[in-house]
Amino acid sequence: MRYIYKFIFSGLALLIPLVGCDTNKLHDLNINPQALDEINMNFLFSAAQLGAASGGSEGDNRYIDWRTNIGYCSYWVQHLANAGGGGLASGDKYFENVESDNAPWEFIYGGQLKNLNEVLKQTGEGGFEEGGKKNTREAARILRAFLFQRLTDYYGNIPYSAALQGIEGDLFPAYDNQQAIYNALFSELEQAGAAISSSNKDDGFAAADMIFQGDVDKWKKWANSIMLRMAMRMSNVDAATAGTMVTKALSGAGVFTSNDDIPWVPMSETPSEWTNQNGISRAFISGDGGQSRVMSKTLIDVLKGDNANDAADDDPRLMIFSEGVNGDTDPLVQEGMPNGLDAGTLDEYTGIVSSDPNVLFSRLNVAFIDRDDPYMLMSYAEMELLQAEAAERGIGTVSGTAKAHYEAGVRAAMQMYEPFDPTLAVSDAAVDTYLATYPYTDGGASSLEMIGTQMWLSKFLNWWEAWSDFRRTGFPNLTPINYPGNITNGTIPRRLKYPTHENATNSDNIASGGTSPDTHLGKVWWDVN
Fold this sequence. Notes:
With 529 residues, the chain is an all-alpha fold. The protein has helices at 6-19, 23-29, 38-52, 63-76, 90-93, 98-122, 128-131, 134-155, 178-195, 205-208, 216-233, 239-250, 279-284, 297-303, 318-321, 343-350, 357-360, 380-393, 402-414, 428-437, 445-458, 463-473, 500-505, 507-513, and strands at 264-265, 322-325, 362-364, 375-376. The longest helix is centred in the N-terminal third of the chain and has 25 residues, at 98-122.
């Protein structure tokens, strides 16, 4: 799969100056929708898909993941740890990094949504023979909803209805509240999921579709899967609407039903280092980003199970996530570094002068960080675990038991990493042993904690979503750190701050409609835990 789209990647490398240029010039080029070459529309759609994975089509594929997904969220959810105190390790000590706050806004609005907005304008009324690009349009709406869901969950209230209207002269868009955005996105997903169809005429859609290669049934499932995620995310503040949307998401085409449904974005070593390669990988690779790969004690302790001195009860993912301690792959010697340590307190913790975390602790498996590794946008495991929670809490109509969905989710989460490398396979027998060792407990807080903890584990590499799940559920029960001078007084951050440039240019709309307070302790609408 990694090389199927080389011809698209090559075209995207040529297209980047077009999609990144001044929007007024782009608008002038496209005054007559019929005059736009159809393959360029396919390229815009492909560029948005590629951008959704690390922001690659915006010309710096490691920036957004390195700053926000890794530099903030991997540390906030205690999957990774870093003895550094600032910059791209700010999240470990709850320090502020302006680039980490700005990056999702800049890349999602400025690249991915901009490209999709142009696709939607050119495939709307009067464009491309009145519906000749129907599937491209509906898939673009689904991807657009996925990206807006990301943005609003990071920041809370954001521009939605007035967003991306700079060509029409609205340079200072008003903010919509998050509840209204969710309601609008539900409608978009319902409509687009119903409208995309194999019967639609859409030349070039399959070739331009990096994610599902034109498989409209999988696009329908993805629309419903996003809907299920959103429904459960709002379930603590509007259980009635959440129940309705859970039921809708699970009806008709339904949600993902196997790991074969996972939306992967393929990556390639060529032609562009800054566009076509996996940004998470590039952030970690020595000689490229070079970010520390040291793993958190919190994560390693969970993976080592109840008895740290017996490998028989370990999570099979222990030696999937970890490459070992200084080359030692014995599960019993695996050890994570506590979050919140600096050079001095690390030496105190280890009893070693000038301690080297890279030698003393488990590190993220290098098998995850090839430059041409595919990028996972969502997982099937999440769908099963959300259904387990919905069934346990009585949210909506869910077929099957919470236990069955929980076990399916754990199995899927353990067995979804082979596309990174065949060595990351986990056997059915290993999963069976784990589920027998830690059987699901039906009913009550213990079952919800099991589901929440497995959700946290399933979001390895997708740390910003693990952070959103933690904010909503409170699981696992993480112990915050309180490093001197941190910006939250020892509280795990609850949201991203609005970008500095947005505060400078659109402050009136932030004041009248933005999430308040605009700090890392402000809360988005659904965060009432």
